[in-house]
């Protein structure tokens, strides 16, 4: 009998060792690169002796090494079994990345299953449901809020699309009316941005009308001749600077110039909001009526809304932390 | 006849226990025969069967460490952070979808599953996505899109909900020349069946619908993706050179309804016969529609499920069955640049963000619809459609359960017998776990319900004898010296069936 027990133990240990040896030979994916803040060549990622490209979402294997060669650079990883991100810097030297995919042993699995069957440890799963079509009630409803139109807005004349922004609710009916009350552009916006078709915006007074949940908000819109607008610094027209960068800079400049130019500022950043992170941040800020902090010397507009200097909330940084 | 009765009475007098046992077994067999032959649509039968299979799925999920031959998946997840970063839109912005698709398509995945219903407009002209789909290269991997259906209030087949992107991939004219439909982009159905208790346990392999006046079948996402994955793992069936999606369309044509008036649910047949021991078949029974879930949802996890092997052509190695990557990390990059870590895997683009409402209760808990689709693809690829054990084996198992239940109720107190029967069924589940993993489902509903009815009958007979003996006094609470005999709890088998 004892001999049989011994044989059984040896077989079990042997098969486990074989499995472990097999596992050692194979690279095991344990996570990915979430972000890094310098050029890729500042970082050295190696699997064994092979150097691999450092790109966002690059898989990280158990035993990989990562070295950060710049004192101000960091690289963020997401790994299995880690609730939060892992941030590496030069201080970590050549960091060996290790992790282990949770193994499910038969006995521990059976124990966990038994516990769940008798409901000792499992929390009951409940979630709230909405008894409405497509669960949109909470999103479609809500108070109409458009801080961007807290005051009359100025935009420059010309043939172009006009982007309108608001905060809530998600579905809003929009009209832009001319001085005689005739609609120049209209439509239903889904989300927090809506863009008119291309329109010849002649210097005149218009009205922007937003309607949602039976509530209507109106604000006047004055279209200025181009030569009557503020003079952009010539650096912002430098053709050698990439177009998205110039657009972001121009948008920021208009917003800082005067809160009445927030809508004009939005026109510069909104088209790139889908592809450029700075443009997206600015778009969100402008929709919420926030604008860059005025220059300390004063005289270049004032901050308004909760993102202004008096709130202690940096208007450009705020959206990224939400 | 008289001789038989006398022999029975003699047996009863000499061997009371054995007689009672034999009677129980015979009665149990009769119940089994009735249930098996007449298949009564009893909710109880279905519930017990579902509960048992649910428990086996949970047990399997908690004890499976690796799956040797399985496709690997990447779930590009529009999570809460992504949804917020993209502007919390009611409808996912199509421009972002175009970016995700382009980056994924350039990354050489095995297939792309876009689990976003394009029938809803995001209030833009959708040009970016239209252009992308129109320019989708024939060398790129198969792309599966969602086709949703609108019910017909008159009771006919549901109608197709056409999207503004249909033209981009369908037959169209360019500079006067007719360009055929793209054969590597396909609209598919994401339909599953939800049970009365709110759990999604069964898939639909195709949906019958009406396109104008023409009846059609829309293949399911999981079927299309599984057929692609099976061909990649096991190779094409002999003497069939068609691409997987073409082969699937050809086989599905036989299931097209004759008209738009009503569904044609009666047909059976094989959709994919390779590998031979795990075919994908259309059958009318409930078992063949069972999704054997293997991956539960865990918000924020980097990877989910057991370990699988990566294909050798992409460098080999091991990974978890589902790697989860936030969509917000994909969108900002150069849209022409491939994403690392997708080659050879099935990429599913979908959303787990709470406001999307795309979450369903399953035997493994609540999970996003995209993960449900991944589970279905994996199960279909691994097992084909689940099948029952051969009939002789099922009969033997049923007999064993009946005999054990009869023995236990004969010798043990009811409460102990119930616990012992639960333990027995548990051991039976352990013994059959490997076969279950391979797609063989043993429906324990019949033996369990048989034992339950048997016990109910036993209690009823005892109660009838008591009524006969006590007459109206039976209505009164029995005294200390008067055994009512009808206090034996019922539901032994039900409890066992749940175990």
Give a description of the structure.
The complex is a heterodimer of chains A (322) and B (499). Chain A is 23% helix and 26% strand. In chain A, helix 4 packs parallel to helix 6. The longest helix of chain A is centred in the N-terminal third of the chain and has 24 residues. The C terminus of chain A is likely disordered. Chain A folds into three domains: 70 residues, no CATH class; 68 residues, Sandwich (Immunoglobulin-like); 92 residues. In chain A, the strands form five sheets. A five-stranded mixed sheet of chain A has the order 9-17-16-12-13. Chain A has a four-stranded antiparallel sheet with strand order 4-1-6-7, with no helix packed on it. With 322 residues, chain A is of the alpha+beta class. Chain A is built from six helices and 17 strands. In chain A, strand 6 and strand 7 form a beta hairpin. Chain B has 499 residues and is α/β, with parallel strands linked by helices. Chain B has two domains: 156 residues, no CATH class; 318 residues, no CATH class. Helices cover 40% and strands 18% of the residues of chain B. Chain B has an eight-stranded mixed sheet with strand order 1-16-17-2-18-3-4-9, sandwiched between helices. In chain B, strands 5-6 form a two-stranded antiparallel sheet. In chain B, a hairpin with a 2-residue loop joins strand 19 and strand 20. In chain B, helix 12 packs parallel to helix 15. The longest helix of chain B is centred in the last third of the chain and has 26 residues. Chain B is elongated. The C terminus of chain B is likely disordered. At the A-B interface, strand 1, helix 2, strand 13, strand 14 and helix 6 of A face helix 3, helix 5, strand 16 and strand 17 of B.
